Amino acid sequence: MATEPIEADRPPQSAWTPAPPRLAWGDGLALLVWTAAVAAFFWDVVAMKAALFYFDVTEINLPYRDFFADELKAGRFSRWFPGLYCGMPLYSESQAGYFHPFKYLFYPWMETWKAFGLDTVFSIWLTGVGTFGWLRRHVGPIGALTGGAIFGLSGFMWAHLIHTSMVNALASVPLAVWALECAWQGGRLRAVALGGLAMACQIFAGHLQDFLLTSMLLGVYGLYRASIETGTRNRLFALGVAAGIPVMGAILSSVQWIPSKELLDRSPRAEGLNWESLTYGSWSPELLPTLVLRESYGTRARDTDWMDGFYPYHEMNTYMSVLGIVLAVVGLSGRRDRWGAFWPILATVGTLLMLGRFTFLMDYAHKIPVLGSSRIPVRLHLWVSLAVAALAAIGADRLARPGPVRLRWGVLTVLALLLASVPIMTVVYAPAFAVPDPWPKPYHQDRYQWLGEELTRAGFRTGLLTLLGVLLAAWAARASGIRRRVLTAALPVLIMADLFGSHWHDAPTIDPSYWTDPPESAEFILDDPDHQRVSGFGRFSAGEPGYASFPIDFMPVRDTLAWSLAPVFGLDSLMGETPMIPSRWKRYMDATVAVVEQSTVAGVSHLLYGFSGQVAGWPPPEQVGTAYVFSNPDRLPRARLMGRPVYASDEDEAVAMLGRLGPAIRDRLVVEDPDRPLPTDAEPSGTATIAEEIPERVVIRTQSNDDAYLFLADTFDPGWSATLDGQPVPIRPAHVNFRAVFVPEGDHEVVFRYRPAGFVTGLVVSTLGALVALGMLVVRRPMVQLQSDHGATGWRGWWPWFLAIGFAAVVGASAVAIGPEGVTTHSRWSAGLHRFTWGAGLEAMQRQPIVENR
After folding, report:
1. Strand residue runs (E) in 615-715
2. Residues 6+ apart with CB under 8 A from 675
3. Spatial distance between the Cα atoms of 809 and 289, rounded to a whole number of angstroms
4. Is residue 296 very low, low, confident or very high in pLDDT (cuts 50, 70, 90)?
5. Is the peptide bond prior to 436 cis by the omega test (within 30 degrees of 0)?
6. pLDDT range class, residue 848, cuts 50, 70, 90
7. Contact at 8 Å (CB) between 651 and 672?
8. Residue 134, by phi and psi: left (phi above 0), alpha (psi -120 to 50) or beta?
9. Strand partners for 688
């Protein structure tokens, strides 16, 4: 017999209960505000007046996509990129995003710099829209806009604005969570197919780690949902759907990740990570002040340089707006609801994990297969920002509706963070107040003034917006009707203003001529009819170009054609920038230390440096722009016949032989050929001519009076196959990194063709997965009937205090060690405090100073 709930079981009047109104004009207005805000902030990019160019954009993303776009415009789907690393498996490397839908929305129809900018901004916009749509199932448009603004503009997004693949992948996160909840609500598999497609797009975007982070998030959500369901069948369904969406995503994207996994297995990353490498990039507790003042220690764009050794500093950005934190605490009013109760749990777990090395939870994480290779723990802030977005959405929704609202705990939380920040910042900045001043030069004094002004402006902006937001929230809590909704509607606008303002310098742009007009050095080399590959060594490290506290002319920075710039301007390079390189290329570079032999064997015709010097045996350089260009007097053709082989039984022996031969590698061939068809004293004769070439097909005609090896100074890869006069022949690794084919005497035609290793297998699996997904879409019958998303958990209202106590216990237990000397600070916290200094950040990355009197 049913009984009436007793008074103790009833939620207080201030509690949040879901009652999302139907779609109406408010939704259109909210989306219009979001669209206008994003477009206004990125107007120069949206209007195609300026181009993105900073850090990974220059190093990796735009050059990769420029090649892919050019190939699409030429009617080819070329998966091999000849322009970098003597040729690289770009499709398998994945960051070009070959199957990501945005690449076909923009890149085939416009210049790459335009498409790249729109691709990036559209991904940010879609992240907010997707979050809005997901949250709109549970809250009204004001709450949904609040959550969409926080997740779409959180520190996680700004931290990875330079990682365009991660920004692309971020848009899938709310869509995957939305699909999971729809699957639970309807009991149908249709949502599993759609959620799997959203997650497949993360892999297609080119960032497997985002897929892993989202999969783990869904797994945690599934465990939670199963724990509050009744009946074994319902619990299994809740878990099965949470696992099914990532599995479907993995199946649909097999055509991408299987070739990528094959490349990973033969890259330096195949060795795995130790604990130090895995926890590199942990979020230090001393960064707590940046939760209330994003610029507490400066930013990646304009930093105080104290973060030396704390790379990747830009990834440490976890700012979500102070007003967002206040609303998230107000959102704990939904803690009795089944949906609302999950988000404080996710926020707590995510925060503990993103601390990385600073808790014992990561002590053995590097031994977990697959997940143990997911580096930089601060990236788990993805979970925290999504949880805060959901809680803030609840808080704003509660404020917009009738009834009393308690702001006290939200304000007290912010005050507690401020009070905790004071001693931390006092310790960190102590060296800046030392007597005598360790940085007395005028340059440093100017920067002190600049730093003081920046912190003052940041404090004023954040303080004013937060105070205004709290006052409006307090006014709204006492108002009613339309006035209450209007006052609450101002809160997401203030949050957007705070998040945009605190990241004002984090999206640096430049004149489009940076990408469209070749530097003088590129034109100089292209005028040489015998030019081949180049190798550039920039004046700056990989951290540039970017902002600093003084003006820099970034156009001349391109002159050395360093990073991945060369192919953008029509040249091929020995070098490149990517975290996924074949280990054979790296081992060749390590074994051939002398730049002359290393470059000559690889078919390099020109070296470029950002500073003057000499290359032994080469003519003096010509200064072209700011680059010093050396011309190789002994350049060798990329395709040539070679003899006098030195046979190696495997890659390790070949590396050792390269080191022993030294300069002789120009005339001798280290080849891994078990057949050993050519005598070791055979002298080469004849010619090899490249007759035809597109990225995935190279035709070489040879003529010789004796047997020889055809040596092609292009990177060896298992995806390449060869035919000799139409008959298949093996390709042998030569000089560790390159290719050789044995050719008998006479006239012959050798054709090299490329297809990524694992591509066919992945395509078959993806096709089968697509058929299964189509079947899921047409099946209408629900499998089970779970509880509603919303309803009472039956938990006491004070249950979040258990989370707080558990969090404190884990951190406390991790911070101390008990030994013969008693209770001491644990060694894992030994790197937890950095002191203020100048000259250790962006500006110190220069290999040559560009500011005098430092």
Report:
1. 622-624, 627-631, 639-642, 645-647, 669-671, 687-694, 697-704, 708-712
2. 742
3. 21
4. confident
5. yes
6. very low
7. yes
8. alpha
9. 702
